[in-house]
Amino acid sequence: MKKRQKKRILKWFALLIIICGVSIGIKYVFFPDENEKIRKTISLAVSEIEKKDINSFIRHFTLDYRDCFDNTYGTLYILLRNNIDSIRTIDIDISQIEIDIEKSNATVRFFATFYIKTTDGEDYKDAGRFILKIRKEDLKWRVYRLDEMGYEFD
């Protein structure tokens, strides 16, 4: 009798561990944390602009978007649409990502390096630190402000 009880307890314990493991897996697959959602949004936006998919890229921005270069949502879209055909390749590397979330808003600080080759053979390289302001709209994180950080020397 005791042997049967031990087996039953072990089976229930194993079942409990399996259920906990599946629950944790489901949480991370279907309900990732907000930091991961933001990182995924940034990664997706970079991938779309590198593919020169302007329509998909612009969906990551709010209609009231502004940046430090005096672009709005509309001027950014027109600028990209009018110039994308003159670009052969775009490569953007983003690193040193820091995310601060406060309710439905987040501030993302990062370092970006840009490599652009034009169809007429010119190469452009640039790098800088940026501050991205994003907010959650319709369960998606969207960019409403982009600013370049000034250089700081110790």
Automatic annotation (TrEMBL):
The keyword Transmembrane helix applies. The chain crosses the membrane at residues 12-31. Keywords: Membrane, Transmembrane, Transmembrane helix. InterPro entries: NTF2-like_dom_sf. This is Lumazine-binding domain protein. It comes from candidate division TA06 bacterium ADurb.Bin131. The lineage of its organism: Bacteria, Bacteria division TA06.
